[in-house]
Known about the structure:
- There is one protein chain.
- By secondary structure, the chain is mainly alpha-helical.
- Among the domains are: about 220-260 and about 295-420, Up-down Bundle (de novo design (two linked rop proteins)); about 425-540, no CATH class.
- The chain is built from 38 helices and nine strands.
- The protein has a nine-stranded parallel β-sheet with strand order 3-2-1-9-8-7-6-5-4.
- Helix 10 (about 325-335) crosses helix 13 (about 380-395) and helix 35 (about 790-795) packs antiparallel against helix 36 (about 800-825).
- It is globular.
- The two termini are about 35 Å apart.
Amino acid sequence: MSEAQIRSDVPRGVVSHEVPELLRNDVRLLGELLGRVLREAGGEDLLADVERLRELTIASHGDPDGHALAEAEALVAGFSHGRAEQVARAFTCYFHLANLAEEYHRVRVLHDRESRLAPHELAPDDSLPAAYQQLVDEMGEDTARARLRDLEFRPVFTAHPTEARRRAVARSIRRVAELVAERDTLHIGGTTLAENERRLLSEIDTLWRTSPLRAEKPTVLDEVVTVLSIFDATLADILPTVYRRLDDWLLEDAAGTTAPVVAPFARLGTWIGGDRDGNPNVTAEVTRAAAMLASEHALDALLASARRTADGLTLDGVGTPASPGLSALWQRLRSLSEAMTSRIANDAPNEPHRRAMLGVIERIAATRRRDADLAYPSADALEADLRTVQDSLHAAGARRAAYGDLQRLLWQVQTFGFHLAELEVRQHSQVHAAALADIEEHGVDGDLQPMTVEVLDTFRALGTVQRRFGIKAARRYIVSFTQSAEHLAAVYRLAELAFGGADDAPVIDAIPLFETFADLQNSIDILDGALAHPRVQERLAANGRRVEVMLGYSDSSKDVGPLSATLALDDAQRRIAEWADRNDIVLTLFHGRGGALGRGGGPANRAVLAQPPGSVDGRFKLTEQGEVIFARYGDPDIATRHIEQVTAATLLADAPSVVRRNDEAAARFADLAARLDVTSRERFHALVRADGFPAWFAQVTPLEELGLLPIGSRPARRGLSVSSLDDLRAIPWVFSWSQARINLAGWYGLGTALEAVGDLDELRTAYAEWPLFATIIDNVEMSLAKTDERIAAHYLALGDRDDLAGLVLGEMALTRRWVLATTGSTGVLSRRRILGRAVQLRSPYVDALSLLQLRALRGLRTGQDDQSTDDLRRLLLLTVNGVAAGLQNTG
């Protein structure tokens, strides 16, 4: 390997990219307004301190001698504690403003692109119409239509504590974003623009004055409400919009005048209120309450949509007569409540379709308030009534009314039902084992341990939810750390014990979660054992032989390192898909991916297209966690694009060209994969299994302090002390490394593995022809873009272990060199304009917060700061919020 091929002087920072003028103008305006707010709130001195620190951190990126960074550190050290807090909050506010400006610019670009290009002219992995067209070209119209009909996208929302913002802060950010968008529609120089600026100042002042820290940890139901706010704001309308966009393209001129081609393909899931693995705050009562809250929001959305639909059905009965079916529906409504139908008849005397819809609305409202006399027994019953109205409109020739707002409402009913999202339960296999042992010793009605009682009550809560909202509302039960078929059998046994027998027990699909490297290796033996269980056989017979298997990205990465975990997951998916084919199983793989790269994050559509052949088969399910939920679903336009991208990739994953490419690449590069796996795992274990590593990790990162941050209802670890990493949750593992500007969980071991291969031509060929390898390399490059070895060295110096610090910094430099050489890049993110620009805009400002965090952390570690421990912790937690906002990912 020549020095020219692998340079030792690889640029440390992200390559500079030009910022579009419109985005630059937005960021400049918001920055100037924030400056005015800071001056008003803290005087010229506060603004001067913020500006001086900003100038020094910017200068430090072009200062190889480190003088500017040292001067910045000295400036931070000289701040009073109060001033340090003010400066931390100022930089955090800046990040929130820069983030919303960038998000709005993405929307602006999306609108511009859609005005210039037809849907099928986009890249196939970026557009559902383009993906469908490629399927037609490769497989024919009939096969493509069948695959579209069977398409499934299942995002599952989780409450992992990686959303560091308070809801009050998030609401304030959204109001500022709306005002920024408003400026594009206003006339320059007009009084409306001046009013817009005044309101922006007011909102930014509110953002500055709103405490970024919660007073206390949120409850589980607080977390439920937070995610339900996303449903209310975007998802209730976005999913039918996605269906409509594709249907319009497929039907062309006939769109909106005939039955849709597109069947709803999205189904929401949630762990919030159901995931009790390691979270004692999730009880059976909380599960019931979470289901009720979700139902209330679903029914509110259906009511709003039904009212909108009814408002558009003012069609008189002469020109648009009722069908016999509609007349029969009206008579059924009369039999339920003569008073109700008399009132409706007076309001709509000669409008039979509106009259029927008003009756439907009354029944939805009754379902919402749990009025048994009028309530619908199920969402299916509501759908049947809506079909009756639609069929009558169609028969009367009012086809646009039949397939307009009414079709949108039908799509919502089919997508959300009355439960909104399927509530999934998760519990650790050892909790089940302990409960069974307790029951065996004392009897199911004996003096049981509180945890055993809670386990049994969980199954009873599932029964309650199913009776109220149907089997679809809650039937999936995920078993963490599934290490044998008996761990799945325990679920069915406990359900029977909770109800006194199998006949009364709720319908359950026990889903294995394979998390560690060993569990992934043993997955087929476990699945074979589960297949023989009588309850599993009963479910297969009832559900069309459908099986779900969950794969844990987080713990496998913490177990063997990011590269080996990715390769092990890929191998497991391939073997599980082959197992499903041998056993005539309709398989859904559930990807427990996090937002951070160390937890399986990264562009979801690229990840789908890199999956092993047969492992997708038109079905993609993944966890959407923490800040990712707001980033992907908080804005309607961005949410629409995300859903289209993922579903397009899901549709494309089994196209012959994609299957052939992945198959050939897997065979061709199998030896390379094996070499990379062994070397990277050895390198990772050499670090994390070194004597004293757990304590050192806690010393050089804010791990312990993150447990004090009130950003989630779940404890940071399952119970062991920091002397062991085995029981540390993957979230604080990733979160801590990202705060220290190291991001070790996303890349450690790759540099050594690439260097051991040593053949740059082989690596570049693999990057060009092996989708999985390209995804790994690109994700590592993104992770490295958010590292900074200058700042990282300051954190690592807190631990007084030069050997471990040297391993980390050496591997960081090695990984950067080899990644850039493999991709043929001149610098980190030189080929990724949008992401590179985002990191470029933020890095100097993140540095400022990192220096403030280091001041607090150093004081906590050494006790040499005059401030109290409480004050130092508060400063540290303030900077955690800011760094998370600046890096745009936490755990």
